[in-house]
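EI: anyone free to look at a 251-residue chain?
SC: sure, send it
EI:
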Amino acid sequence: MLKAFTQREAIRQDIAGYCRHLMLSQQAVRICAEEATPRQEEFLHHILAEEMASRERSKKARLLNRAGFPVMKSFDNYEFGCVRLPPSLTKDDLLGCQFIPQKKNLVLYGPVGIGKTHMAIALGVKACTMGFRVRFHTVTDLVLRLTDARRLGNLERLTRELVQLDMLILDEWGYVPVDKEGSQLLFRVVADSYESKSLVLTTNLEFSKWGGIFTDEQMAAAMIDRLVHHGHLLLFEGESYRMRNALMRQT
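SC: here you go
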């Protein structure tokens, strides 16, 4: 008898929690306590649980769609042997996206073809499934979007969208030189993100050469200062995965 009473109380507590999450009143809980049979309570519990699960699935799908990943990646069979993590970041913390609520940045540095972009996308996909708002851009694409938005008078709207993110992935940082206007706009994104969201950068360019890419040594230094103050540097070393597995090379 006591066990059945305890189970009913647990079910009612779940129903109360579902109602809060679904922005419903607690009227259902009161009716359960006063009028419902155990089977009726179990049925209502099932319906609300299914609605919660459905909304969560829809939310994750929406976040993944909005993120703009070029392809979907995961950490299944990912080769961590080429990655050196800093002492301040464990593999479990990385895979658990613990750096996002801490608003810390990741700079993935190393030569091309050894998994930087794969890791960045896999982290972004994992973050979306955890309910975080993520956006993926190559630096070239983002600079083009920013300059077009400024020209069309939509810059503030685009920057507001970026500010609202939990994690912004900037791929191919420093691969292509950026003009003065683009550098200024990109600096604004980095400055707006400082201590408000996590930035994840992939780059094959050492910090000392950033000034030559972004046309202004002081601006590059200011970017680096904001990125490394609350950030982790992940070093990628080894032979290009794409070259190692290239069909032309095997032939």
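EI: DSSP finds twelve helices and six strands in the chain.
SC: 👍
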